[in-house]
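Section handout 9: paired folding examples.
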Amino acid sequence: MKKIRVIIFIISAIFFISCNNMDKKDAIQFILKGNIEMAKENYQKSLYYYVEAEKKMATIPDIFLNKGILYTRMGKPELALAELNKAIELDSKFNEARFLRAETLIKLGDAKNAEADMEQIAQFYGDSARYYLIRGNLYTLRNRDAQAYADFEKAILLDPGMAEAYVNRGVLNFHEQKFKDAEHDFLKAHEINNRLPEALNNLGMVYARTKNWSKANTYLDQALLMNKVDPIALNNKGYVLLNTGQSDDAKKLLDHSLLLMPDNGYTLRNIGLYYFNQNQIDEALKYFKQAVELEQPVDELYGYTGIAYQRINQLNEACKIWKQGNLLQDSIATASIQKFCK
């Protein structure tokens, strides 16, 4: 994001030098003030200045790019997308806005339009680490993991200090159950940026999967110290507590996480596990089935769902869900279908 901000300052300065129109000069001054406040993370004040700039002259594309960056930092991708669309409508060759729009579209799950933007900017950014990072994210969204992995490696080669590329490569390693490789990537990202929540959360989950609960707690507690309402950290910490005999505390964190992020398949699975452990199988199945309906890649979800059906003597339903899980390389589902389904 620092690179974007520098580009904005340069463009703004050029506008200021070349412009004799008072409204435009005032608008540029508001943009500069907004940039300063955004750098200090005074987001509401920054937004105020950008809105004032828009009132002065709503035909400067930089205003809308900056608002898009601001909303991205505030975790509001839908609002960011609306502003970036305005910037590109005003200047169809505004490649920096198109680049950020592609990244935003990926976050929103719109692979088709993101790919169109990435193709259009390839000639301008195709040799940059950031381009490979974002294209890797696009390949990940399209479930083209081998290509995504290659792009993250290329991003790291071009910029060994790009923490996000290590995180994203680590996620692919984690899903392949290459936990040592994933741990290496997340630790490297944490070394580069020790306040990166994704690295902290993912380290927590690597250690949780390898049952190193003490280390898992260490990193997840750091993540929650940074942001006590981070739904991912709350879910992950809840999972650790669930597996260390602290079910009631786990349930509180999981409920809070679900309230903040209702469509997180992992949280739904974990609440299902809470009820499963309490032998409330019908309630467990309610949450398992909600998670399955989201069609997200959630580890061992199909396996546990089938076991829940098996517990209430619905072996046909269990085998049906295990077959789906087997296709998705769910290890519990694969083992169960071989043992119980003919």
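Moving on to protein 2 of 2.
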Amino acid sequence: MKASKWASAQTFVRFGTLFSEGARILKEGFRRKISGRKTYPGSAEDICEQIIRRCFHSRKRFFMTSPTTYPEFYARDFGRTVPSLLACGFDRWVESTFEYAFKHYESEGHFTLIISPSGKCFDFPSYSPDGFAYFLHGMSCLNDPWLVKRHRTFLEREIERFYHLVLDSDKLVRKETLFSEAQDYAHRNSSCYSNSVCLLIQRSLISLGLFNPLEDIDFSSQILKHFWRTDHFMDDLKGDFYPSGDAQIMPFLVGLKDDSERTRLNLVIPWMEKTGLLDPMPARYGISSHPKRKMLPLETFHAWQTDAVWTSLGLDYLAILKKFKHPSFLIQLKQYQNLIERLSCFPEVIDSKSKTLFQSSLIETDDSMIWAASLLNLLKTNNLYKTKKENA
């Protein structure tokens, strides 16, 4: 088959996968809106543990992002929860999930953000720097030299691909290029978020002992130089003011090499409060009424990536408060604990007015996210988790 015909066939397959996945997600969201969410008995700790176990596909042996709306492998969502899954004793399930991912990636020939329930690999809406970063971060936390050795050739090929695909000659994330990020409906121009995850990749490659073309890049200085503005981080290199939640959180989460980090955090938190990013609880990606951020057309159907509260981002915010021993940490942790017990589930997105699962005219968002592992670990490590559970 000629190269042009092969590319056309691949594009057709990709759009077919995106369409079928979108239809399935819409169908599940509509079903939940009509029939109601799944609820779980017990305390917040009990609810989180039930959801974690339900997210593991016992036959295919991998962690799904959720059992219903997202019964698929998401590199971003899995990788970000690996440290908590390990801390809560799910080591064997984490190992088998990595093997499941490598099996499909190596068959496909490259890394992708998502592996569909039918085993098809694809990105949405484009290549995901943070997905790859979190995948490597999860491997670094697992610390399995044999896993690295078995897949070294594939990993180092993908590292080279990342370097050439994502970074420009200034060693910043490419401008005027659409990348998939946690807020994957947003059009951004070399975002603070994606430049920050480059630092996460750099450190993971050092930890894993892999080929590291990022080794000599000072990402910390780059981020501070290009994004820091007195009391907050700019969203991207366009320089337009936009109250961006992930731009404030990710630099602290990855940890910049900077002696003033604590002072900077003490400026950022009041700024986030003033702009409404922490209201009614942490944390929003942005504010829907603000005109500066262009979004994909999908956002018009359900504005859930601007005005709503995302629990994944909120848990990252809690991790930062804990890291810096901030006095509001236990207050915010208790707020999340109370939310989970009130709703009897672990919501994907929270409506900023009703403080229940976010709904649009067509769907209700998910109730059983794998992110529950992050909250379980925070409760466990702060003496709010009382019962030691046996590893599965």
